[in-house]
Amino acid sequence: MSAAGLYLKRNILILDEPTSVLTPDEADEVLSTLKKLTQAGQVTIVTITHKFREVNAFCDTVTILRRGKLVDTRPTTELDNDLMAEMMVGRRDTRGTVERETMMPGKVVLKLEGLSVADHVGQLAVDALDLDVRAGEIVGVAGVSGNGQREMVETLAGQRDAEAGRMLVHGEVYTAKRAEMIRHKIAYLPEEPLRNACVAEMSVAENMALRSFDQAPASPDGVRLKRSPMRETARKLIDAYRVTTPGPDAPIKALSGGNVQRAVLARELSSDGDLLIVANPCFGLDFAAVAEIRARIVQTRNRGAAVLLVSEDLDEILQLSDRIVVMFDGKLALQTDGKTADVGPIGRAMAGH
Question: Which residue among 89, 135, 247, 311 is least packed, with the fewest CB closer than 10 Å?
Fold first, then answer.
């Protein structure tokens, strides 16, 4: 769309997250080209982004909005990341600094052995993939969209069958059935949770009970459903995870994206799972929701759970991961330690170089 606008000789370009599907090198190349055009006076660009690095490197002025209202407009040189974050959230103490406790990874919780998965047209999207995730670590899976990440996650969640290979959890063959997910304490936070992890017409309380509706206290005998304890459990989770909702009986589709995400995360983490599978958890959320969701993910890791984080946001991967792998064309193109990760090699691996 940027190229089309330039080809049509538009004087003003409005770009919404223009680098979301680009590698770091590609993003820098595109933004550098646009920057040169603005410096030459050929075009005016308004870009909407949450990436501080790109703001600092390529923007002349910054306008910050919070809840639909203008907070401030300043030259980029007058702002730093902390100040921008504070202005976006409204107060310094809610920025949700992510702190990973120093710990050695434990036993392998999730193991993929030669996993191959086809996409919706039958083409191989995941190709003989081998991957381990250990207790007490976050393994971040980076990559440009369309390189097998979605198919891998859907297979782990039981939404797609594998063509070959196998999955193991705690050393046992795992076929992603509900009973196995409960027994192995597997939690799953998909992208677009309202569509992929909720029944939109049902209430917040009913959606929060989807994992445990046939267990006490919601169902003492596994047959009859008692709504009173279900609502009480929902109220506790709403308070603990700060879900903004009129109440447990409100339809979940009426909640904001961030609050739907909080509600699903509350449901999935309420049982202190051993494995958390997360896909693009913060896409489209406001800064405060992003900070809180990321903090919850790290808290899960800090208590000893294994976390598989699949994200197209490289900044998120770098911030949260103990170990980083890059998927390209359905295979692992790179593995690196999170502490020593270098954006250059990661970006080249994302591009297949």
Answer: 247
Q: What is the pLDDT of residues 112-127, one digit of tens each?
A: 999 999 999 999 999 9
- 32 and 179 share one domain: no
Structural domain tally of the chain? 2
CA 214 to chain centre: 29
| CATH code at position 25 | 3.40.50.300
Strand order in the sheet with 124-134: 124-134, 108-118, 164-169, 172-174
Q: Model-level pTM? A: 0.79
Nearest to 206 by CA among 159, 143, 252, 272: 252
The CA–CA distances, whole Å, from 158 to 15, 69, 76, 128 equal 36, 42, 46, 18
Question: E strands along 17-171, which residues?
Answer: 44-48, 61-66, 69-75, 108-118, 124-134, 138-142, 164-169
Q: How does pLDDT run across 187-228, given as a tens digit for each residue? A: 999 888 999 899 999 999 999 998 888 777 777 776 777 888
Q: Which domain holds residue 74?
A: 2-94
Q: What's the helix, strand, coil split of the chain in %, to 5? A: 35, 25, 40
pLDDT at residue number 132: 98
Q: Are 89 and 149 within one domain? A: no
Name 133's Cβ contacts closer than 8 Å, sequence gap at least 6: 108, 109, 110, 111, 139, 275, 306, 307, 308
Find, among 96, 278, 89, 271, the residue nearest to 185 by Cα: 271
Dihedral sign of CA atoms 213, 218, 219, 225 in order: negative
Distance CA 334, CA 350 (A): 9
Q: Are residues 312 and 184 in the same domain?
A: yes
Residue 165 is assigned to a structural domain of this protein: no
Question: What is the distance between the alpha carbons of residues 267 and 284, in angstroms, rounded to a whole number?
Answer: 21
Tens-digit pLDDT profile for residues 297-351: 999 999 999 999 999 988 899 999 999 999 999 999 999 999 999 888 998 899 8
Put the strands of the sheet holding 323-328 in their side by side order.
186-189, 275-279, 306-310, 138-142, 323-328, 331-337
